[in-house]
Amino acid sequence: MLRLGHGAAALSIALAFLPAARPAAAALTAEEAVRLALRNNSNVVRAEAGVLDAKSGLYSSYAAILPSLSASLVRDNRVVEGNVGYFGSLPVEQDQESHGTTPQINATWNLFDLSSLTSFQSARAGLAAARHTRESARNDVVLSTLSQFYETVRTIHLASVASGALRVARDNERRARALFEVGSVSRSDLLKAQVQTAQSELDSLTASQAIVNQRIALAQQLGVAEEGLGEIDTVLTATAAEVDEAAILAEAAGNRPDVRAAEAELRAAKAARLAARLGRLPYVSLSGGATFDARSRTTNTTVRGISPFIPEGIDANESETDRTVSWRVALNWDVFDGLRTDAASASAEARLRRARDAHDALKRNLASEVRQAVLAYREAAERARVAARAVESAQENLNLTQQKYNVGSATILELVDAQVQATRAAADGVSARAAIRIAEARLDRVRGRGAR
């Protein structure tokens, strides 16, 4: 393991060009940024919604294989007035009124339905796929958040380097002007110092605007307003370590949630296609019902009767039943359903083809993705080592040039060139350390790890 830093020689550049460290408690850290993103990012919200949709599909499949039970209390009322009938050729007029109360329970159950059972298996696999997809989305958000966070930190450091370079350029311009006025340097030297100051001012303005842009991008990633983002922890250290590509590939194959999601979605699609095909087969259903303590009362009022056969008056009847139970078993076969089964089969086949292609592509590209991440990490680590050496060399060159200038053996232009080289080396060192942190996040993502 190698610790990457500027060393003693680079410390003076860091002190010259970088701002004083802010209290960590008052600044937004990378870990806090990840927590905010996992809570607010739209991709995470959509992934959570996808899990709810999958649960809804699972509950719907339960409804097709579990019994359905309902209970009701029925109150019947019936009134008939002026009902005229005939007894032979003689009219008979009656009024009727009936009331009844019937508590009842009804139940239905698809006792044996292969299509529904297979649909249930598909829904369970679909829910597993949705959950793995949610974890994959969270890992993607972690990677994009850390990348944007360290890009923002890098921009802040580069702006500090640019501000420090601008101060040095202005000092050099004042020094060159003073020497020009006493005739120690030519006007060309003064003009070159002025050009360097102007370029430094431009670089500083560009860097300041870049901070605003990166903060806005970070706030959008976190799902917060830029005004509420606050200060950002600008501590930027990196530790490079050797990585084993084969071990990372094995870990990715076993742990990657997107790979698991693709496998679960493929199982769900296969089960859905089978369920659609089984929909052409007969199925057995069971249904039944029961009534308890059913009561009814019927009143017939004869307004105009035929004595003695149908006398005028009121005739009331009451009935009460303790319990009535009925049930039936049916073998059902949807011989023709208006091509609904054909439509379901075509949709399931399309889903299977998409799922198989996504699964095969993910498996096929997994090794390449791991290799790219490993190479990017190794490149970032090597760049950091080279940048550290460049910073030390640039600082030593600047010290030597400053000493030579002090004794008159170096020109102002040579001093300016040494300062520019030191500034560029400091900026490269910042970029290299940020690149390592981003490469580390990418390695975690390719392994299937989320926030640590």
Automatic annotation (TrEMBL):
Chief location of this protein within or outside the cell: membrane
Residue spans making up a coiled coil are 345-404
Q: Which domain of life is it from?
A: Bacteria
Where it sits in the cell: the answer is:
Cell outer membrane
UniProt keyword Transmembrane present = yes
Keyword annotations for this protein, in alphabetical order, are: Cell outer membrane, Coiled coil, Membrane, Signal, Transmembrane, Transmembrane beta strand, Transport
GO MF entries: efflux transmembrane transporter activity; porin activity
Q: Does the keyword Coiled coil apply?
A: yes
Signal peptide extent: 1-26
Report the family membership: Belongs to the outer membrane factor (OMF) (TC 1.B.17) family.
PANTHER family reported for this sequence: OUTER MEMBRANE PROTEIN TOLC
- Provide the protein name: TolC family protein
Name the source organism: Eiseniibacteriota bacterium
